[in-house]
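## retry 2 of 3
previous attempt timed out at serialization; input unchanged, resubmitting
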Amino acid sequence: MKSSLRFLALPAALLTPLLLSTGCVFMGPNSIKATRPAYNMAVQQTNDQELLLNLVRSRYRDTLYFTSVERIAATQEFNESIGASAGVTATQNGFSIPPVTSTIVRAFTKPFTLGPASIAVNEKPTIFYAPLEGEKFVRQMMTPMNPDLLLLLVKSGWSLERVFTVGVLEMNGLKNAPTASGPTPSREPEFRDFREAVKLLRVLQREQLLDLNKAPGAEGLELRFTRDSATRVETVRLKALLGLAPEKDRFRIIPGSEAPNRETIALSTRPVLSALTFLSQGVEPPALHYTQGKIRPTERADGSPFDWQELLGDIFRVRSSDKAPADASVAIPYRGTWFYIADNDLDTKSTFVLLTQLIALHSSPTAGPAMSFSFGK
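## retry succeeded, writing output
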């Protein structure tokens, strides 16, 4: 009987360390490893979905609304329990066995009961949301971008063409689709000369034939062409488009829409909200929504349809589908249609990331004198 009791007690001795070791998977540093990536991915994915949702809303002239995850507080509790009981009972019976007249027989019972065991891991997350509205909305979304932020992005490796296409409204009188900064216009916007200019800037940037530095003896920035660029076709054409003096190689940059002379480049930036609305023209609704009058079509001067990809080609495109896309970087359902960015559309994904960075950077406007940057590094 003793050996059987030891045999029954053995699982309890083994199970308790097992419960403790299982609990360690969810506690302490291991709990961070298990939960932090999940929270990180959830915030990133929902931020992308919210931004895409507002781009689509803008295309349909619906009200925009933004929220941000300000803070996440999560607590964890680990509870375990196991029950066991053991006892000894004795019974005594008297009966006669001939030729003995009376005999007492004692029987011993040693039961062992392993009670129920349980493990409970409770997580209690508290998520704090902050809507972007009122004065904060006006300051962050409706004031023009600080030019230093655009130049900071160029310095960090972003294409000058992409940054200027999204963030600049006008450069020395060259308009970058100003009518596309609001609701979808009925007529084709003015943009072709501006797009040609930024493409030329990109070519010269890649070949390190121009740079941007602090203007000597004055606040602001100065665009400088290298000597090797003087005879380049791109340099000659760019100066002609911007109305710059062909014999000069240094041009000061000032805020504004038109330069006072041929040695200055005036730069006018978009508000973040205008940049978002501008990019929303790249959202492609289903054809049925045009016939139902939910989307305004845009026409050329001759009355033919205008394709917004002529303006946003190689920059931004949001596709639509009647069912959930199988391979999307980000997707949201809206008005009975799925809108998504294809996972292999690297140009659109790049512009989408750029827009998120512009929103993040513009939420804390920079102050102080302009910084010095170099293109093409």
